[in-house]
Amino acid sequence: MNSEMSSKSGVAGWLDRVFHLSENNTSVKREFLAGLTTFVAMAYILFVNPSVLGDAGMDKGAVFTATALSAILGCLLMGFLANYPIAIAPGLGDNAFFTYSVVLAMGIPWQKAMAGVFIASVLFTLVSFFKIREIIIDAIPQDLKYAMAAGIGIFIAFVGLQGGGLIVADKSSLVSIGSFTVPTTWLTIFGVFFIGILMAKKVPGSIFYGLVATTLLGLATGLIKMPTHIISTAPSMKPTFGVGLEHLSVLSSPQMWAVVLIFFLVAFFDTAGTLIGLAQQAGIMKDGKMPRIGRALMADSLSMLGGAVMGTTPTAAYVESSAGIAIGGKTGLTAVVTGILFGFSMIFSPLLTVVTSQVTAPALIVVGVLMVSALRDIQWDKFEVALPAFLVVIGMPLTYNISYGIAFGFLTYPIMMVAAGRRKDINPIMWILFLLFILLLYVLNILH
């Protein structure tokens, strides 16, 4: 019995040393709960990614496995290299651009488009290795960093409201309130109130308990179907593995280099904005900078490169990590737990069908409330700062894209600062970003 206790304390001690749990005032139990919550909040990507890329003609089974493996790789790298509670998996915006803009609209076969993803991944890794990404992120003004955090909060709350059926598309006004005659919508409403009451009572793990309670209610009422079976083997990646490497000759086309540029820039700023927002929420930022950001960016880059080889679109830091951070996740152990659970998901994938969008929606809505608190730190009394910050915040949900929101702010900031007579306060890198975003929007306009 003593040896068993010693073994347990030895494992706990090792985890404490590797992830610095004591220094960050956290515990193995809290980090595990945070990792589990993050996984539950983002597990939908295992089914959404194959569905989206399947529209491009890719094998859905192979994409399912590639999605899981690239998420495992990204989460483990983020956990062990950077010690951040931030999960990585294939990004939703990138897969939609790949399928609907590149493959279907431009008529480029998915095999050749995947070659473009691979080249963008290589460039991504190089700029991370030479710390170019780190320099750029450090140059972003603090007010715009706060705006990114708040904008992402509103964005994921909007995603939650939409996924839960509380907001629906409308031809005349773009969006409108959902129908309360739809039974599943009440699952979301129940979840929001359940989590909200627990949060008000300061119950640790409120969001996770809300997810569990909402799932159980859905199963009990028949609104969520019980899985037909529990275990299934992971599909083969043979139809997608290494396909991009076999079609690198397509890069002789200027059209494909435009595609590479867009993949590169969108992935760059999606992840940069998300990392800053999540770090702000987790209290990681010190003097406006992220410690170990170079390692975090390298973890992101390597997972993107691995995903491109396996056969999936670019990976990204996930805003759903905010659900785990809200529960108390503070170290890389949270990300590692999430990665391990992605591994288990390859075997127990049928069980993930009970985690519907109505189950995860309440978590996203509540986390949006937590993240939007960054608005209080923006200098609203200085219009040259207020306008760019506002455009970042409002641009993300209204364009349904984190990068576009960042673009609006970055294109406005230098102009406003010059108008206010504060030219000297502009970091030269911000002018470079200004030109890059003009180029990005110009290329997007041509392709559309």
TrEMBL record:
The membrane-topology field of this record reads:
Multi-pass membrane protein
**Alphabetical list of InterPro entries matching this protein:** Azg-like, Azg-like_bact_archaea, NCS2
Q: Where in the cell is it found?
A: Cell membrane
Give TM regions: 32-49, 61-82, 113-132, 144-168, 180-200, 207-224, 256-278, 325-344, 351-375, 387-416, 428-447
What keywords were assigned to this record? Cell membrane, Membrane, Transmembrane, Transmembrane helix, Transport
Q: Name one Pfam family in it.
A: Xan_ur_permease
> Gene Ontology terms, cellular component aspect?
plasma membrane
Question: Domain of life here?
Answer: Bacteria
Q: Single GO molecular-function term?
A: purine nucleobase transmembrane transporter activity
Family annotation (PANTHER family): GUANINE_HYPOXANTHINE PERMEASE PBUG, XANTHINE/URACIL PERMEASE C887.17-RELATED
Q: Which family does it belong to?
A: Belongs to the nucleobase:cation symporter-2 (NCS2) (TC 2.A.40) family. Azg-like subfamily.
This protein is called Transport protein
* Provenance organism: Ligilactobacillus saerimneri 30a
